[in-house]
Amino acid sequence: MKKDVKKKKKIKWKHKPSKVTVAVSLLDIFVIFVLVVIYGNAKFKNFWIPTAMTTMHHQYLAYTLYSEEEIDKVMRENFIEENREAIDFDAIVIGDTSEKSHYSSKYEEEIFTRNEGNDIYKIIRIDEPKFKGYLTVIYNPANVKLAVPTKLGKYGQTVAKMCQDNGGLVGINGGGFEDLDGWGNGSTPYGAIIKDGQLIYEHAGGDGGLIGFNKDHKMYLTYEEPEVAIQNGMVDAVEFGPFLIVNGKVSKIHGDGGWGTADRTVIAQRKDGIVLFLIIEGRQPGYSIGATMGDVQKILLRYKAYNAANLDGGASSTMAVNGKLFNRPSAGGEYGGRTVSNAWIVVDNQTQEKKEG
After folding, report:
1. SS3 labels along the chain
2. pLDDT for 231-279, tens place per residue?
3. Which residue ranges make up each domain of the chain?
């Protein structure tokens, strides 16, 4: 005998949901699940809050998940104790930076092994699991100059444009600038700018130290007033920070330092006078999420930086080579990089002297 087989009734939707609606609903469920899991995770909290709070326009991402009390608590626990010692200029001995017959590490070999036909600079690729970037090695610190836009105070310029206008072979962005509602054009720098031994610009908003070089091309990091620094020999400088290494001693970083994970721009000098430009790309999941201040310190110490300071980061972190944008900034790349208020550039002094002669 045949068994009676009851047929299952098909569910009849009065309004059958579309595939898009189902997908969005599933995504919502997934997001809620993820937020519930990560909300109480201390490691995530210490990553998320400083990273959001150090941006100009994405601080709401911190407040979306956490209360103001929690945010304040995390920010108090993540900070940097800067080393503010007076720079020991005598420790910087600018001398022979030619290739060696023996190297103490692969990083030393990377620095001193020149690219064929280029004795002025070398670019080293930084390739870490979490982030990518570039380290420019400048063999003669006398080739490092400060460049500013032609209409400083009115319009900013890209790093590439400032290189083009000033004979820069390589350039990186420098200090910060007023960036109201994310539409700042780099016209109004924060803090002081010293160029050729003159205070050429000063504006409220700068709360860092002076980062630059003295007349002997030795890196000068100080919290002196601009006029005092100039009297003490400072030639070129921008205002930013924090200082990461002073006289070979690192600033103490608590947590991630309160600066989160992001794009970075750093300038440094070794005891032999070699200057280092470091650019870390960030905020690009799947490619490079960025670096913390601790990450940056580790890279600099590998290459024996003796003095080092943080410059403006985020979308402003740009490097130009031969008058063109070289790195992948987190924003503005399609326009050749953001317009900024100053840049540190590498010039060929001999070529410039011939042109002027």
Report:
1. CCCCCCCCCCCCCCCCCCHHHHHHHHHHHHHHHHHHHHHCCHHHHHHHHHHHHCCCCCCHHHHHHCCHHHHHHHHHHCEEECCCCCCCHHHCCCCCCCCCCCCCCHHHHHHHCCECCECCEEEEEEECCCCEEEEEEECCHHHEEEECCCCCCCCCECHHHHHHHHCEEEEEECCCECCHHHCCCCCCECEEEEECCEEEEEECCCCCEEEEEECCCCEEEECCCHHHHHHCCEEEEEEECCEEEECCEECEEECCCCCCCECEEEEEEECCCCEEEEEEECCECCCECCECHHHHHHHHHHCCEEEEEECCCHHHCCEEECCEECCCCCCCHHHCCCCECCEEEEECHHHHHHHHC
2. 999 999 999 999 999 999 999 999 889 999 999 999 999 999 999 999 9
3. 19-77, 81-356
